[in-house]
Design brief:
Layout: H1 18-23, H2 26-46, H3 53-61, H4 67-80, H5 83-94, H6 109-112, E1 117-122, E2 125-131, H7 135-162, E3 167-172, E4 175-181, H8 182-206, H9 220-225, H10 230-243, H11 260-289, E5 292-293, H12 313-337, H13 348-373, E6 377-378, H14 380-394, H15 396-405, H16 410-429, H17 437-443, H18 454-457, H19 467-482, H20 486-494
Antiparallel strand pairs: 1-2, 3-4, 5-6
Length: 502
C-alpha cells in the first residue's frame, strides 16, 4: 500500500509531514469516497429504502482499497473514461451485495466534492498526483496546520522568555533606532502568528458539508427515490451530514458548493505566508548582522566556493515557499469569479493543484520555521558591540537632561552635544574608526557636573523601556490563553524537534 500513500510532489515527498502527505494521498482519497457512499447507504436504509444489512456490512468491511483494487479501478477508468463510475464498479466487486445501491441517487460531485485526483505529466514523467479537498479534507488539513502553528508559537514563546531583557539595537527603515530587546522583537513575530492561528480556527469552524443535493442542487433525484417525500429528503441530507462528522450542511448549493469557500480557506493560509516571510526575512537580516543565526550543522556547507559562508538557507526556503503560498490565494479568487450558473468544469484542474499545494506548502513552511525556532543561535557579544557603536548618539538626550538637572542650560548643552556628535560621526563615517563621542564628552570640562553619572547613563538596560515587562505580559495574557486548549497542550508536550535536511 505504500505506493498509494504518498502525495508525490517534489515538496511533499521530501519535506511535508506524513500526516499532511497522507491526507492528500490516493489511498485516503478513495477511502473517503467509499466512506461517503457508506454514509449515504446507511441514511437511505434508515429512511426506508430497500438496502440490506449484508450490503452495509460488506461496504463497511471494504473501505480500504488493496493494490489489486487500485489496478482494477485504473483499468475501469481507462475503459469508462469516468473516475467515479470506475470506483463504483470496483467497490461493487468487493461488496457485491451493495453493487446495485452504491452511489444511489447521487451525482459525482457528492464524492468528488470531498476529494478527487489528477495525474500531472511533465515531459512524459508522472510527477505527482493531486487531490481536490473539500469540507472533510479542508477541515482536517486546517486541524493539522493549527496544531503545527501552535507548536511553533510555543517554541518562539520560549525563545522570547529567555531573551526578554537582552538589549538589542532596534531598527526603523533598517537604520539604527532606539533599543528594544531580543525577546520583545520575537513577540512581534508571535503576535502575527497568533492572528494567523485565530484566522485558521475561524476558517475551520465555518466549514460546512455540501450534503446530498443532486446534480444541480435541487435534490430532484432523491425526491424521486423517496416518492416525493420532501421530509425524508431533508432528513437524508441531515443524516448524511451527521454521519460525515459535520454540524451543518450548506443550505443551498449548485452542483458544487460555492467556490467562495475555497477563498475563505486559502485567505488565512496566504496571510500565514506573509507572516512567515516577514519572520524569515528578519532572521536573514539578523544573520547578515551576525546577531542571530538559524541552525547550522557542524558539517554543513554554506557555499561551494566560499567555505566560510553560513547562508540562512532554511529562512530562504521559508521565504521562497511563503511567496508561493501567498500567490495561491489568487487562484481561488479567480476560480470563484468564473463559475457559470450551477457550475463549470474549468475549476477542476486548477483546484486539484491549488488546494493541495496550499496545504502542503503551509505545512512545510511551519515545519521549517519550527526547526529554525528550535535552533536559533544568539550572539550577545556581537549585539553588545553594535549597541556600543550606536548608543552614544542615542544617549545624547539623556546627557542633555542630566546637565539640565544640574542647573545647566538646555540650548547650550544641545549645541555642545551637536558639535561633539558631528565630530564623532566624522570619525566613524569618514575615517572608519570607533564612535568616540563619550570620550569627547569626558574630555570636555562643560560636562564635569555629570561625568560621574556617564556610565550609568550609558547602560543599555536604561534604554529598553518596558520591553521585558511587555514580553511577560504578552506571554501571560495572550499566548497562554491561545494555547490553553487541551488538545493543543497535548500536541505541544508530545512534539519532537523537527530535523530537516538543508
Amino acid at each position: 500500500m505504500e505506493a498509494f500513500e504518498t502525495y508525490q510532489t517534489p515538496l511533499s515527498s521530501r519535506y511535508a509531514s506524513k500526516e499532511m502527505a497522507h491526507l492528500f494521498s490516493p489511498a485516503n482519497r478513495f477511502f473517503t469516497w467509499r466512506k461517503l457512499w457508506l454514509n449515504l447507504a446507511i441514511a437511505e436504509k434508515e429512511l426506508g429504502l430497500p438496502i440490506t444489512d449484508e450490503a452495509i456490512a460488506q461496504m463497511q468491511d471494504n473501505l480500504h482499497l488493496t493494490a489489486e483494487q487500485f489496478e482494477v479501478a485504473a483499468q475501469e477508468e481507462k475503459k469508462r473514461r469516468h473516475d467515479v463510475m470506475a470506483h463504483v464498479h470496483t467497490f461493487g466487486t468487493v461488496a457485491p451485495a451493495a453493487a446495485g445501491i452504491i452511489h444511489l441517487g447521487a451525482t459525482s460531485c457528492y464524492v468528488t466534492e470531498s476529494v478527487s485526483c489528477m495525474h500531472l505529466i511533465l515531459n512524459g514523467v508522472e510527477c505527482f498526483q493531486t487531490v481536490t479537498p473539500t469540507s472533510y479534507f479542508l477541515r482536517t488539513g486546517l486541524d493539522y496546520l493549527i496544531r503545527s502553528l501552535s507548536i511553533l508559537i510555543s517554541r518562539l514563546s520560549t525563545f522570547a522568555a529567555q531573551y526578554r531583557a537582552l538589549p538589542t539595537l532596534g531598527f526603523t527603515h533598517f537604520q539604527p533606532a532606539q533599543l528594544t530587546t531580543v525577546g520583545k522583537r520575537a513577540t512581534l513575530w508571535i503576535q502575527e502568528l497568533l492572528w494567523d492561528l485565530r484566522n485558521l480556527k475561524r476558517a475551520r469552524d465555518d466549514l460546512g458539508f455540501r450534503g446530498v443535493k443532486g446534480t444541480t442542487g435541487t435534490q430532484a433525484s432523491f425526491l424521486t427515490l423517496f416518492d416525493g417525500d420532501h421530509e425524508k429528503v431533508e432528513a437524508l441530507d441531515k443524516r448524511v451530514t451527521q454521519l460525515s462528522g459535520f454540524e451543518y450542511a450548506y443550505p443551498v448549493t449548485s452542483q458544487t458548493y460555492s467556490r467562495k469557500i475555497d477563498i475563505d480557506v486559502l485567505a488565512p493560509l496566504a496571510s500565514l505566508g506573509a507572516t512567515a516571510h516577514k519572520l524569515a526575512t528578519d532572521i536573514r537580516l539578523l544573520a547578515n548582522l551576525k546577531e542571530i543565526e538559524e541552525p547550522f550543522e557542524s558539517t554543513q556547507i554554506g557555499s561551494s566556493a566560499m567555505a566560510y559562508k553560513r547562508n540562512p538557507m532554511r529562512s530562504e526556503r521559508v521565504c521562497s515557499l511563503a511567496r508561493h503560498l501567498m500567490v495561491l490565494h489568487q487562484n481561488a479568487l479567480m476560480t470563484s469569479a468564473v463559475q457559470w450558473f450551477e457550475r463549470t468544469l474549468d475549476d477542476s484542474a486548477n483546484r486539484r493543484v491549488t488546494l493541495p499545494e496550499a496545504f502542503l506548502t503551509a505545512d512545510i513552511v511551519l515545519s521549517t520555521l519550527q526547526n529554525i525556532s528550535e535552533g536559533l543561535v544568539v550572539y550577545p557579544k556581537v549585539i553588545a558591540r553594535r549597541i556600543a557603536q550606536e548608543l552614544p548618539f542615542m544617549a545624547t538626550e539623556n546627557v542633555i537632561m542630566a546637565i539640565v538637572k544640574k542647573g545647566g542650560d538646555r540650548q547650550e548643552a544641545h549645541e555642545k552635544i551637536r558639535v561633539l556628535s558631528h565630530e564623532a560621526a566624522h570619525q566613524v563615517k569618514q575615517l572608519g574608526l570607533e564612535n568616540d563621542l563619550i570620550e569627547r564628552i569626558r574630555a570636555d570640562a562643560y560636562f564635569d557636573p555629570i561625568k560621574p553619572e556617564l556610565d550609568e547613563l550609558l547602560q543599555p538596560e536604561s534604554f529598553i523601556g518596558r520591553a521585558p515587562e511587555q514580553v511577560d505580559a504578552f506571554l501571560k495574557d495572550w499566548v497562554e490563553p491561545a494555547l490553553a486548549d487541551k488538545d493543543i497542550q497535548e500536541a505541544i508536550s508530545k512534539s519532537a524537534k523537527v530535523e530537516l535536511s538543508v
